[in-house]
Amino acid sequence: MSLLRRRIAAMDTFAPSPILALRETAVATATTSSASATSTIDPYTHSLNGVNQPVNMLFKEMLWWTLGIFALIILSVRIIEVAWAKLRHVSAMSVPADGQTYWKRSQWSWMPGLKKHLIYAPLWNKRHNREIKLSNAISMGTLPSRFHSILLFLYLSSNLIYCFFLNWANENYYSFCAELRGRSGTLAAVNMVPLIILAGRNNPLIALLKVSFDTYNLIHRWAGRMVVLEAIIHTVAWLIVQVADGGWESVDSRLLTESFVASGMCGTLALFVLLVLSLGPVRHAFYETFLNVHIILAVIIFACTWVHCATSNIGVLPQLPWVVAIFLLWLADRLARMFRLVYYNWSARGFTEAHVSPMPGEACRVTMHLPRHVDVKPGTHAYLRFKEVNPWESHPFSVAWIEHFPSFDGKEGRDEVTERDIRRGTTSVSFVIGAHTGFTRALFNKASATGLSTVTLRAAMEGPYAGHHSLDSYGHAVLFAGSTGITHQLSYLKPLIEGFNAGTIATRRVTLVWIIRDYEALEWIRPWVDEVLRMPRRKEILKIQLFITRPKNPKEIQSASNTVQMFPGRPNVMTILKKEVDEQVGAMAVTVCGPGALADDVREAVRAVQDEQSVVDFCEESFTW
């Protein structure tokens, strides 16, 4: 806003003396009377006088078309990627490891450089997902990647160009303010459409473009900041003219008597409050509170914007249909979430129950017993809600283990389980939840307070979401996990080994690297790992490396075999990955889920091994919002 004030103040240099005199007179008489009927001020306090509506509509079209074309470009790239992965999958799944050499090497000489310097690159040197903390209690959030930064720069700069593409030669200061008011208000309404689309968990673009919700949420936050800035400019531009015309008394009068003005001011104030609450230090410190207040303020903003566009003295503003569309998009996402919540958690068999077990290392193992069959892919996450622990809150957690229980319809004598039996049965979905603050701490305390090994709670699961990254077409997969990030990686192990035994996937080698603080953390996933280790031909495909950073007893660090190894201290990610690349089988996928510092180390290592002799793709699972 300071830039706007300086630029408007600079107009004094160019304004002719009659205009300056008029402004001085208006200020001098503002507290005693309104502008006369022949004033050059009064017409620009209301209606669309001075507003360049054709240009406003042009920039609306340009902004929406730009976003649409970019989405089509991403869709085209994704279609090519899926087709290429399918071709690799089909051609490699029936050949041995040494027969995948073709897919090991890059088919395009420019691709490794593009990955290294743009697609996988952090904004600056290395830091991306490691939080910027001013203290243990104050977090500024994370930095966007280089690619995301370029997209955000183009989006934000285009908005600023559209906003200030005005008639700077206009000698009437108040007409200029009216044009700025119309432009900024139009752009604020225009940007609310992608703002709401990107905010939804059921956003169809997530599955269509295979872009993570984390990325959409990043763009959502910056789009929201742009909406707030444009709304403030819109309000200030109106205030400048209104105060010059009738003083602050006229502002108070219109706020009290005109719903059009009152709704606009109320909406701008709600947006500003939402902006303050969404800033990193506030959002991270009071996340649960922010979520609830965010929804309340969003409803207020919708209502105020609707009233503002519907009660103008010229009738309905042209932006009203957009506001209706925005509300319908938001309502559709809420209804979709409600439908999924009811459908997955209730059936004739009853309601979902959660078995919560407190674990060593301040974590809970949670198994959601759903009353119907749910198809859950590896690499997905779901939002959990517990009736007895902050029931108004839901939080995302990575799925660790899926188990389906077939229904035989009273024909238990049959040995063969059909697909129909599985579909008619039930599903259990398991998670590991570390106890930090707020909701997770309350859940851990609830489970621990009973003194029982397992407590049963009424709960609900919303999801699953994501799961767009399939590893089936890669000959080699390297999975890095830190602490409870093991849940994301564990969900891939059983399907990959089953696919290897069935000959339906290209994967011939899987390396799991898990970094934990102490030996006790192994209890989090022990029953699932035991099942994986008992699977046929597991030793032919899977190698596990456990790094214990703070072992209580050196005798705990004992490797069970060459395929399950334990080491003290932290791993050298670069050394591990370079060794895997030296022994690479076909195309390689490297995934990471864990603390931001680990994710940044893995990202750096993946960038370092990019060359024409090896195809190494990178996938990061994070919840940075």
From TrEMBL:
It comes from Truncatella angustata. The keyword Transmembrane helix applies. PROSITE patterns: FAD_FR (PS51384). It is a multi-pass membrane protein. The chain crosses the membrane at residues 62-84, 150-169, 222-241, 261-282, 289-308, 314-332. The lineage of its organism: Eukaryota, Fungi, Dikarya, Ascomycota, Pezizomycotina. This is FAD binding protein. Residues 328-471 form the FAD-binding FR-type domain. Keywords: Electron transport, Ion transport, Membrane, Oxidoreductase, Transmembrane, Transmembrane helix, Transport. GO terms for cellular component: plasma membrane. The keyword Transmembrane applies. It is found in: Membrane. InterPro entries: FAD-bd_8, FAD-bd_FR_type, Fe3_Rdtase_TM_dom, Fe_red_NAD-bd_6, Ferric/Cupric_Reductase, FNR_nucleotide-bd. One of its GO terms (biological process) is intracellular iron ion homeostasis. Pfam families: FAD_binding_8, Ferric_reduct, NAD_binding_6. One of its GO terms (molecular function) is ferric-chelate reductase activity. It comes from the Eukaryota. Its main location: membrane.
